[in-house]
Backbone:
């Protein structure tokens, strides 16, 4: 008795999904954003140069293959260091620009520590949420805050920059809670990566199977008639 074979497209997609999952679990897949995305400009001026140690750490190559709860802990440590320095500085637009770029570099650095698939999904979320692949710039954040405060009589650039400096170190409570749950479960990087690929892989292969098998059934019915 011969075992039924999967249609060629379905089997090829299943093999590709399996290969991608294994490669990502071994940290072989490239990330959608490279080390250049973590680059931040040099702080100019005696006061802004106080951020130099924090910015220098952001440029160091990150460790890879970490579970998401460990990535989140590292991210909080980096953002906390940035927050400590910003708390004792006068909020200006130059400082706001540096803070936004530093937060972006910290965000990319954290994503490079996890899987390539998670990095891609987070970029896709940014696109769907903010309508841009690169939404975290000073100009875009100022435009968003100005739109929220459009009912106010007057909103100066200095007030917007001060608000941006204050929010540059806030993190998402939803992601913090998720990381805490995964830490309590003791999830490893390989386990998280496998579960991340499981549902999309099943969905893609199932759709391919239905697409390939349905014409064959219709042709078989026509032949019998």
Residues:
């Amino acid at each position: 008795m011969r075992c039924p074979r999967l249609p060629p497209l379905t089997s090829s997609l299943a093999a590709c999904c399996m290969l991608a999952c294994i490669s990502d679990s071994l940290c072989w897949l490239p990330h959608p954003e490279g080390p250049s995305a973590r680059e931040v400009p040099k702080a100019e001026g005696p006061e802004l140069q106080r951020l130099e140690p924090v910015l220098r750490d952001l440029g160091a190559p990150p460790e890879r293959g970490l579970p998401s709860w460990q990535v989140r802990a590292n991210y909080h440590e980096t953002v906390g260091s940035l927050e400590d320095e910003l708390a004792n500085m006068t909020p200006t637009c130059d400082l706001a620009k540096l803070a936004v770029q530093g937060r972006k570099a910290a965000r990319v650095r954290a994503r490079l520590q996890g899987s390539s698939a998670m990095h891609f999904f987070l970029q896709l979320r940014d696109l769907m949420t903010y309508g841009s692949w690169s939404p975290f710039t000073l100009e875009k954040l100022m435009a968003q805050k100005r739109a929220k405060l459009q009912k106010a009589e007057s909103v100066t650039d200095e007030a917007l920059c001060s608000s941006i400096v204050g929010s540059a170190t806030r993190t998402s409570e939803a992601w913090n809670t998720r990381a805490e749950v995964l830490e309590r479960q003791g999830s490893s990087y390989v386990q998280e990566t496998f579960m991340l690929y499981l549902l999309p892989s099943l969905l893609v292969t199932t759709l391919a199977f239905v697409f390939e098998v349905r014409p064959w059934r219709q042709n078989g019915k026509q032949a019998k008639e």
Remarks:
- Residues 8-224 form one domain.
- The chain has nine helices and no strands.
